[in-house]
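Design a sequence for this backbone.
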C-alpha cells in the first residue's frame, strides 16, 4: 500500500486530496496544527480513515520528524498562509511558512527519503502583474504581494533541489480553485454567502468580515473592485492534477486552470441568479476593500497539463457556484436553527 503525507490536511485542498488518495487505496497521513485538528475542519469527517501528525510548518523539526516517522512514497506540501490579502499584515510569517517551511521539507526529504516524490503547491499569484496572457509554464513571474513572493522563492528552490540533488519534486502552478470548503474570508465564498443571505432574507449576517462588521450588513454585501477577473476552477478537480503530476516518469512543473476568465461582477450575477435574485440590489463596491497592489488579469493556459497529464476540469463555473451557494444556505439554516 502506498503511503502519502499531506501537509495542510485541514485545508480545502488537503481534505479533497485525502479523499481522492483514500479512493486510490493509499494509506494517508495528514499533518495539522494541533489546535486546528481539534476544531471542526475540512478533514474532520476523515478522522479514523487517516492518521494525523501534529506539527507546524514554521517549526523545521516538525516536518522532519513527520517524514522520518512516515517514510512516505509521496508528499503533498499544501500547508501555507494561503491568503494573499492577509500576507501584507503577516509578511514575515508568510515567508517563514510558505518559503522556509517548503525548503525545510525539501531538506528533510533529501536526508531521510530521497526516493520520495514531492508535490509542492505553487500558485498563479506568482505571475502577479502580467504582461503576457494566458500564462503557461514559461511565463515570467512578477509577484505583487508577500504571499506570491514567498511562493516564488519556494518554487525556485523546488527546481534547484530537483536539478541539484536529483529529487522528484514538482510544483503545480494552480490557478484559483474554489469549493463549498473554501473558508468564508475568500472572495468567492463571500459572494456565495451573500447570495445565501439574500435567499434567506438575512439583512445582518451572523458572520463578520475582516473589518469586524457583518459580511452582509443592512442587506448589502461589500466587495472590492468588481472588474477584477480570475480563472476560477473547482478544487475537487484540481487535486486530481496534483496526483497525476506525481505519476509521471520524470518530475516537471505544470500550470493548472480552466482557461476561462470570469469577472467578480459575473460571479455575483451567477451566485444571485442561483437564488433568483438580482445581484445589483445587494452588492456594493467598497474602495476600502481594494488591495494595495492588485494582481493582474491572470488566465491559465493549461495545454501542457491537458496533453501530458490528460487532465481536464469536470465541474463548470456555474455548477461550482451553485454548489457553494447551496452549501452556504444549508450552513446558515443550521446556524439560525442552533441559535433559536
Ligand atoms: P487552505 O484551505 O487555506 O489551507 C491551508 C492549510 O495550510 C490549512 O490546513 C492550514 O492549517 C495550513 N497551515 C497554515 N499555516 C500553517 C502552519 N504554520 N503550519 C502548518 N499548517 C499550516 O488553502 P488551500 O486552498 O487548501 O490551498 C492549498 C495550497 O495551495 C496552499 O499552499 C495554497 O497557497 C495553494 N494554492 C491555493 C490556491 C487556491 O485557489 N485554493 C491556488 C493556488 C495555490 P490551519 O487549519 O491550521 O490553518
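Sequence:
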Amino acid at each position: 500500500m502506498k503511503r502519502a503525507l499531506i501537509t495542510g490536511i485541514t485545508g480545502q485542498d488537503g481534505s479533497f486530496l485525502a479523499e481522492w488518495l483514500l479512493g486510490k487505496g493509499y494509506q494517508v497521513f495528514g499533518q495539522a496544527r494541533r489546535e486546528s485538528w481539534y476544531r471542526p475542519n475540512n478533514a474532520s469527517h476523515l478522522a479514523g480513515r487517516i492518521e494525523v501528525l501534529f506539527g507546524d510548518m514554521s517549526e523545521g523539526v516538525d516536518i522532519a520528524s513527520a517524514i522520518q516517522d512516515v517514510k512516505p512514497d509521496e508528499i503533498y506540501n499544501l500547508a501555507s498562509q494561503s491568503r494573499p490579502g492577509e500576507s501584507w499584515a503577516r509578511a514575515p510569517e508568510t515567508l517563514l511558512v510558505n518559503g522556509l517551511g517548503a525548503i525545510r521539507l525539501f531538506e528533510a526529504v533529501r536526508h531521510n527519503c530521497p526516493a520520495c516524490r514531492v508535490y509542492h503547491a505553487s500558485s498563479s499569484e506568482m505571475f502577479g502583474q502580467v504582461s503576457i496572457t494566458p500564462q503557461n509554464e514559461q511565463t515570467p513571474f512578477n509577484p505583487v504581494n508577500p504571499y506570491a513572493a514567498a511562493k516564488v522563492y519556494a518554487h525556485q528552490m523546488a527546481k534547484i533541489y530537483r536539478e541539484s540533488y536529483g529529487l522528484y519534486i514538482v510544483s503545480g502552478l494552480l490557478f484559483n480553485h474554489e469549493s463549498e470548503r473554501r473558508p468564508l474570508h475568500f472572495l468567492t465564498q463571500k459572494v456565495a454567502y451573500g447570495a445565501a443571505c439574500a435567499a434567506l432574507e438575512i439583512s445582518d449576517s451572523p458572520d463578520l468580515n475582516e473589518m469586524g462588521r457583518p459580511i452582509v450588513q443592512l442587506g448589502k454585501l461589500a466587495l472590492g473592485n468588481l472588474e477584477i477577473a480570475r480563472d476560477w476552477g473547482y478544487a475537487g478537480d484540481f487535486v486530481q492534477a496534483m496526483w497525476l503530476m506525481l505519476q509521471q516518469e520524470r518530475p516537471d512543473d505544470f500550470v493548472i486552470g480552466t482557461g476561462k476568465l470570469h469577472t467578480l461582477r459575473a460571479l455575483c450575477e451567477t451566485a444571485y441568479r442561483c437564488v433568483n435574485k438580482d445581484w445589483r440590489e445587494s452588492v456594493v463596491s467598497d474602495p476600502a476593500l481594494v488591495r494595495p497592489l492588485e494582481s493582474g488579469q491572470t488566465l491559465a493556459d493549461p495545454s501542457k497539463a491537458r496533453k501530458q497529464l490528460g487532465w481536464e476540469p469536470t465541474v463548470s463555473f456555474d455548477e461550482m457556484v451553485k454548489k457553494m451557494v447551496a452549501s452556504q444556505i444549508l450552513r446558515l439554516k443550521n446556524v439560525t436553527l442552533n441559535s433559536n
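The domain at 3-178+232-256 is CATH 3.40.50.720 (Rossmann fold).
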